[in-house]
Amino acid sequence: MKKICVIITRMVAGGASQVVRQIINGGQHRYDFNLFTGPEDITRKELEELQACCPTEIIQSLGRAINPLKDLKAYFEIKSGLRRKHYDLVHTHTSKAGFLGRLAASKLNIPQIIHTPHGTIYTGNNRITGIPESSWGKLLLREAERYAGKKTDWLTVLSNHEKEICIKLGLSREDNTKVIPNGIELGKFSFHTQERYSARKKLGIEDNELMLLNIGRLSPEKGQGLLIESFLDLLEKKHHLKLFIVGDGPEMPNLRKQAGDNLEKNKMFLPGHINEIREYLAAADIFVLPSLYEGFGLAAIEAMAAGLPVIASAVGGLPEIIANDIDGCLMPPGNQLKLTEAIENLIFSKLKRHELGRKAQTKAANYSLEKMLTNYYELYERV
To answer: Whole-model pTM?
Structure first.
C-alpha cells in the first residue's frame, strides 16, 4: 500500500479542504494517507474527525499569511514530519503548503510530488486575502512558484483557463499539467417534488415567494455583499423574495450589518455554516454566485445538479462550467447593476428558470466525484 502525505495550508469548510477530504475518504482502503495541515480555523471536533479518517499532524507554524520567519519554521516542521515516514508520494494543496511542501519533499527525494493550487492567483480579478496586491509582491510569488514547479512531477488544475495561465507563466509544462475539475456526489442533489415542498415549508418560504440562495465561505472575494445590495434593490420593487446566504467566515459581521432589519423581518437569513445543505438546495428557486474570484465554483456545480438556474460571475473556471443563457447566466464580476438585472430577468420568467435548471442538471453530470477521484488515483499510480 503506497504511503501518501497530503499537505494543505488549512482545513476550512468547502473548497480545497473538501477535495482533500474526498480524496482521503475515497482512497483510504487503497492508500496509506497522512495529512499535514496548519492550525488556522480548525476546531477540536474537526481535528478529531480528520484523525478518524487518517493520521493528521498539525504544522503549528503553517499559516495562510506570508511571514518569512514562521514560513521557514513551517518548512522545517514539514520536512521533519516527512522524514519520519518513508513516503512514496506527496500531494500538496493551495499555495503556501504547495511551496513549502514541494521544497521539503524534493529535499528528501520523495519519488513523486503532485501539486494542486485550487485556482490561480495570477489573474486581474484576484481578491484573495493575504495575497500581495502589488505587482512586485506577485512577481516574487511567481518566481517562487516557478522554482517549486521545477520540483513537481504533476501540476493538477481545475480548468483549461488555469492550465493556460500556469504554462504561460512557466509554473508548469504542457506535458505535466493535468486538468482535473472538482466533482460531487450527484445522487445527493436529486430531489423529488415532495422533498422540495417539505423543505420550503420548513424554511418558511410561501408559495408566492422566490428563494434566492448563496452557499460559500463568507469572505470578501465571494461577493456576498454585492448580492445583498442587489437583493435590497429588488425588495424596493416589491418583489416577493427571500435571500439565504449559507456559510461562515470573516465577513459575517459586515453582512449582518448590511442586511439590517431584513433579518428580523425574515427577508434575509444568515444561518452560518450548515453541514447538510440539501434542504436549502431543494427549497431554492435561483442560486447566485457573485464571486470576485473563484478557482472552480463547486457550489455552482452542486446547485446545477439540484436543477437550479445559476447566476454566476464570469471568473476562474465558471465560464467553462456555465454556457451563458443556455444552462446558466454569467455576469461581469463586481457589477451590481448586471447582477440585479440577471436576477430580475429570472424572477419574471418561470419558464426560463425551469429551462436553465433542466439543462444545468444535464451539464452537472459531467462533474461526478467518481470521475474526479479516478483522475487523481491514476496519477498516484504513475510512480
So the answer is: 0.82
